[in-house]
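My convention is simple: the sequence line spells out the residues, with the fold written below as integer tokens. I include a record here:
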Amino acid sequence: MIIRVLGEGQYDVADHALDRLNELDSAVEAAVAASDEAAFTAALESLLDGVRTVGVPHDLDSLDESDLILPPAGASIDEVREMLDDDGLIPG
């Protein structure tokens, strides 16, 4: 799976890593639902760090489409709220 972090680039993430990323995504969703800025900031950073940790930078010369697009570090809670759907940022 190719995950794009806006403003940063794409990462190749193995399917087996998605369970952990979904856990981190759930924390982002909960913080957004509670409008808890402090928890949101920490949860979003943890999610993005998780992608960076389990993912491998995708070839910069590739024109492959991203399977998922995540907000950039520093995104506001309102920006992320607009990106969320029923499955959060990461389906599953």
